[in-house]
């Protein structure tokens, strides 16, 4: 379970990046268009939120 807690935020960002890359037809030039940059930025923000929630929940479990 500890491994899953560690890896899950990274898997989320990897999944979103793969879907965005697939939607751009695997063209890196299209990744710099506004909607795709927004998706990547939101995925990175979600990464930090997921990580902090997991950290908070493990801190609460230990208390």
Task: Record the SSE blueprint.
Elements: H1 2-23, H2 34-62
Helix pairs in contact: 1-2
Structure description:
The chain is mainly α and 63 residues long. It is built from two helices and no strands. Helix 1 packs antiparallel against helix 2 (34-62). The protein is elongated. The chain starts with a helix and ends with a helix.
Low-confidence regions: none
**Describe the biggest sheet?**
none
**Helicity range of the residues?**
over 70%
Distance between the termini: 18 Å
Structural class by secondary-structure content: mainly alpha
Number of separate strands? 0
Radius of gyration over alpha carbons? 15 Å
User: Taking all residues together, what is the mean pLDDT?
Assistant: 92
Tally of helical runs: 2
Rough outline = elongated
Order of helices and strands: HH
Strand residue percentage: under 5%
How would you summarize what this structure contains?
With 63 residues, this protein is an all-alpha fold.
Characteristic key phrases:
single chain, 63 residues, mainly alpha, elongated
């Amino acid at each position: 379970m500890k491994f899953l807690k560690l890896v899950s935020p990274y898997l989320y960002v990897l999944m979103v990046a793969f879907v965005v890359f697939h939607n751009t037809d695997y063209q890196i030039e299209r990744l710099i268009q506004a909607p795709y940059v927004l998706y990547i930025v939101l995925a990175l923000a979600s990464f930090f939120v997921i990580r902090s929630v997991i950290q908070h929940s493990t801190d609460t479990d230990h208390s």
